[in-house]
């Protein structure tokens, strides 16, 4: 199992002790590793919060596989009844993960300020998959899955004292930070929205980091970043996993420097993406200053509706947005196909991105929660399961809609309201999750798209898409202009598919 050899050094139940100020000793772990001569001075000792009878011991002496507090499971060794707190538990990912982890035996708690519901409402949009109020959701989780989720309505930034009290009460062993506004177009509406997004995201993350320092410094934070932090380097330079690999070298004017371990350049594509870049630096610094431990999860564009838990009962479904602000591209395309709107490719439609299905994202997150970084370690994974151009996605959605559901799906190119390269090289590296954490994608894009069609074509969801037709075509331009984009052309599907296949061979 991928984390069998992790030791108490990685475990959130450890209470570190020794002749070191753990909250101010910098990022390097090497100089504190047990020395060959094993002198007292260089030793870091620990006590187990779960097994106090062990007394003081060397945290590297026991592995997860050897510890009775760990049990093997489908995603690695996991702490029994692990306490996981989800920030943003009411959202698309947060609610899905709460049910998923609860079903794996975790004690799930969570906070939310309901901002996402407010923001979507403010735009005149709605989740097309109906979701209930939180108390209904919690009741359904109890009745259908037997889960008791400990929820508090808290804003982690403006109510940080209450947040701190709740963290102190629960003492989570992992904190998943999803409590952010995820929308690029929403952040580009005007100055008020740019401020709202950056305030919510950046200040919420800062408040979380300080709370962790003060209350649960051994707890790992699994923080949702985004592949969009990196942009799409026009040189074709690979998109590494957050930090340059050890053997990366900078050459300039006949001289050479190692880049290994440095944060790779960022080129965010909206004020929302900028907020994620700021988070990256705040998390990186907190790990360095206070020996916190964090995974920054650079997630590709998410899509899909299905996990065993959210599909178990209509009351357990997670939200699904398809409007121009909160809908991600695949989710939007399927809804457009159902509404009879030609799928909207922005610009050339040759933007290439990494994607991941909802269920696969849950699996990755679980593997990361089970395998915390070491104290002081800021680690990054690129959480992606496939690479596609928007054109390729449109073809897959159109083909599925036509062949399996008898829909007359069209594809159109429209003006691109964003400032982004719509034709560019793209080489994303996403090796850590498969190689180090045992992740293998389970969801085929075509299968998930089919499930989405099945759900969207039910009377209730179809009616909800129809009710909000007016929020599908984009009107938010990065330039500040407010007008609906115009059509550039309707595509001839067959000819374009062949051309695209050629392009893909070149790009991959
Ligand atoms: N696009 C279209 N047509 C549409 C909608 C989008 O061609 O109707 C294009 C966009 O121009 C863009 C690409 O599809 O090139 C992806 O757009 P998106 O809206 O699905 O995703 P994005 O704005 O990049 O943001 C989404 C999530 C965000 C997350 C990000 C991951 O909303 O939270 O950070 O995906 S990534 O894109 O890898 O940065």
Structure characterization notes:
- 34% of the residues lie in helices and 18% in strands.
- It has 508 residues and is α/β, with parallel strands linked by helices.
- The chain has one domain: NAD(P)-binding Rossmann-like Domain (Rossmann fold, 3-Layer(aba) Sandwich), CATH 3.40.50.
- The strands form six sheets. The chain has a seven-stranded parallel sheet with strand order 7-6-5-8-9-12-16, with helices on both faces.
- The structure holds sulfoquinovose-uridine-C1,5'-diphosphate (USQ).
Structure in a nutshell:
This protein is 34% helix and 18% strand. The protein has helices at 92-103, 115-122, 134-145, 160-170, 184-187, 191-215, 271-290, 329-339, 358-370, 390-405, 432-437, 445-456, 459-467, 493-507; strands at residues 14-18, 44-48, 70-73, 76-79, 83-87, 107-112, 150-153, 174-177, 220-226, 249-252, 255-258, 293-299, 301-303, 343-346, 352-357, 378-383, 386-389, 411-414, 487-490.
Unreliable stretches (pLDDT < 50, length at least 5) are: 26-32, 502-508
What kind of oligomer do you see? single chain
CATH superfamily: NAD(P)-binding Rossmann-like Domain
If you compute it from the alpha carbons, what radius of gyration comes out, rounded to the nearest whole angstrom?
23 Å
CATH topology: Rossmann fold
What is the CATH architecture assignment? 3-Layer(aba) Sandwich
Overall morphology: globular
Query: What structural category do the secondary elements indicate?
Result: alpha/beta
Strand arrangement within the widest β-sheet reads 7-6-5-8-9-12-16
Bound molecules: sulfoquinovose-uridine-C1,5'-diphosphate
């Amino acid at each position: 199992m991928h984390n069998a050899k992790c030791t108490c050094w990685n475990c959130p139940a450890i209470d570190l002790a020794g002749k070191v100020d753990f909250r101010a000793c910098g990022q390097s772990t090497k100089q504190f590793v047990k020395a060959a001569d094993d002198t007292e001075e260089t030793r870091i000792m620990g006590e187990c919060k779960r097994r106090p009878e062990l007394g003081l011991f060397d945290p590297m002496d026991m592995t997860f596989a050897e510890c009775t507090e760990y049990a093997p499971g489908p995603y690695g060794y996991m702490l029994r009844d692990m306490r996981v707190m989800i920030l943003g538990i009411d959202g698309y990912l947060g609610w899905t993960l709460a049910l998923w982890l609860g079903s794996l035996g975790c004690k799930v708690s969570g906070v939310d300020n309901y901002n996402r519901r407010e923001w979507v409402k403010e735009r005149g949009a709605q989740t097309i998959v109906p979701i209930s109020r939180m108390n209904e959701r919690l009741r359904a989780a109890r009745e259908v899955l037997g889960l008791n989720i400990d929820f508090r309505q808290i804003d982690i930034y403006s109510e940080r004292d209450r947040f701190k009290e709740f963290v102190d009460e629960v003492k989570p062993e992992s904190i998943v930070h999803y409590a952010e506004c995820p929308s690029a177009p929403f952040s580009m509406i005007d100055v008020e929205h740019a401020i709202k997004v950056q305030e919510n995201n950046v200040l919420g993350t800062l408040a979380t980091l300080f709370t962790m320092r003060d209350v649960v410094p051994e707890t790992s934070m699994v923080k949702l970043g985004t592949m969009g932090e990196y942009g799409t380097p026009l040189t074709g330079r690979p998109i590494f996993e957050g930090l340059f690999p050890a053997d990366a070298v900078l050459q300039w004017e006949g001289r050479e420097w190692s880049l290994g371990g440095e944060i790779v350049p960022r080129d965010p594509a909206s004020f929302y993406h900028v907020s994620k870049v700021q988070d990256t630096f705040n998390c990186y610094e907190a790990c360095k200053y206070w020996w916190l431990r964090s995974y920054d999860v650079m997630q590709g564009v998410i899509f899909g509706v299905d996990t065993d838990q959210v599909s178990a009962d209509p009351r357990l479904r997670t939200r699904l947005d398809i409007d121009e602000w909160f809908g991600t591209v695949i989710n939007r395309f399927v809804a457009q196909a159902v509404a009879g709107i030609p799928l909207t490719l922005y610009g050339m439609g040759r933007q290439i991105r990494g994607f991941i299905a909802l269920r696969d994202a849950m699996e990755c997150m679980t593997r990361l929660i089970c395998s915390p970084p070491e104290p002081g370690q800021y680690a990054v994974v690129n959480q992606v399961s496939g690479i596609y151009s928007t054109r390729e996605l449109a073809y897959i959605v159109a083909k599925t809609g036509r062949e399996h559901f008898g829909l007359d799906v069209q594809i159109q190119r429209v003006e691109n309201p964003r400032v982004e390269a719509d034709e560019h090289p793209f080489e994303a590296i996403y090796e850590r999750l498969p190689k180090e954490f045992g992740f293998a994608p389970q969801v085929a894009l075509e299968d998930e798209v089919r499930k989405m069609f099945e759900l969207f074509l039910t009377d209730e969801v179809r009616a909800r898409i129809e009710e909000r037709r007016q929020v599908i075509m984009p009107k938010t331009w990065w330039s500040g202009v407010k007008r609906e984009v115009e059509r550039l052309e309707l595509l001839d599907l067959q000819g374009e598919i062949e051309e695209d296949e050629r392009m893909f061979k070149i790009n991959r």
